Amino acid sequence: MLTCKLVTCFCLAPFLFLTGCNGSAQPPLANRAIPVRPVRVRLMEDAKLVELTTTGPYIVTDESGKVLWRSTSAESLKVRPTGGGILFNGRLLSEPSIQVKLTTFGTIKLADRRYRGWFRLVKNRSGSSLMVVNHVPLEQYVASVVGSELPGYFHPEAFRAQAVAARTYVLHRMLNTNRPDWDVSDGAASQVYSGLSTETSQALKAQRSTLGEVLVYGPAGREEIICTFYCSTCGGGTRPVWELKKGFKRIPPLAGVQVDQCQESPRYRWKKRVFSKSKILSTLADRNAKLRRLGSLKSVRIHSRTPQGRAREIVLVGQRSRRATVSAEDFRYALGLPSTWFDIEDHGSKVWFTKGRGWGHGMGMCQFGANGMARHGYRYDEILSTYFPGSKLVRCY
Ligand SMILES: [Zn+2]
């Protein structure tokens, strides 16, 4: 019911000002517009062919809303870019982008996933591929993300904390993005979003019981929505956001905390990982061709660490003492290491990564830590204020 109310809100009020919309005793946000509009989630970046299936009648429109095609029944659709526009089930639509919208309640299927909302398909600059963007009501997006991000056995208070973190994160993205077509992608680079299938009962309960609640920071009357990063397992403490991300203010909620509550995670400590030096170099060089000038890899060392002890930079030494320094975060992504909190041991042709701690980038809320706190009796607002110290929880609609 509450979600339906929001859907109406999207149509009638493209922007809802927070001042005065807060029904609780908590401080409102002043002079800051919350984009109460659907979230634009990029599902595909470069598709040569897009296959959609609708569960009922639908229309295809141009950007102005003019109907280009109307169907009175459910259909499977094949959409591809073509020279003069977009080829839609064999019909040429002379448009650079189209919108596919159901005319009754239902979902649209892409690959094996069903999605709420509607789809926008946009020809990329090259003209040879399509970007696929799902426009989905914000609260339904939040429910899906929460169900995608947390395992079902987590505590309800951890689910609630996750719902607030997911909502705050996407609103921060929507307020700060300058991308014309999308706000977030559907993978871990933003938040994992899998459509209808992950709107689990736990996720829906968490979304509904925290409806509209977000985390803000700032002096009274000038609060702003913060960027609520989160990660699976911090390994014994979170890190400042500015260690990894540029452009973020050095404010207390983003500073990281020494909270050690994620012992139940299977990656709280991780076992030794072994790579050959040749594998390390070839893997890194696939992403950064300049590294091929090292010839072969003689040694791999941690060049610098963060104050907490995570690797910050890795130095690679090659033939004739050629050296290259890479960021530890890029290094761990390339090799598939769980985190940058490790030691390195040189064993001839092999390198051991030992004393591994945590899983993920280590910023913001630790999900296993949130669950650990919930199991110790903490409420979701207490969990959030622990991981984002100094922030305030407010309801913005
Ligand atoms: Zn943790």
Features:
alpha+beta; 3 domains; seven-stranded mixed beta sheet; 397 residues
Short structural description:
The protein is α+β, with helices and mostly antiparallel strands and 397 residues long. Helices cover 22% and strands 31% of the residues. The protein has a 7-stranded mixed beta sheet. Strands 9-8-7-4-11-12 form a 6-stranded antiparallel beta sheet, with no helix packed on it.
Please give a structural write-up.
- With 397 residues, the protein is an alpha+beta fold.
- The chain folds into 3 domains: 39-136, no CATH class; 139-265 and 363-395, no CATH class; 269-357, no CATH class.
- It has 8 helices and 27 strands.
- A 7-stranded mixed β-sheet has the order 6-5-10-13-14-3-15.
- Mean pLDDT is 91; it is low at 1-28.
- It binds zinc ion.
- Residues 233-234, 261-262, 366, 368-369 line the site of zinc ion.
Q: State which percent range the strand residues make up.
A: 25-35%
Task: Tell how many strands the DSSP assignment holds.
Answer: 27
What class, by secondary structure content? alpha+beta
Contiguous runs where pLDDT drops below 50 for at least 5 residues: 1-28
Distance between the termini: 15 Å
Counted up, domains total: 3
Please count the helical segments: 8
Ligands bound to this protein structure: zinc ion
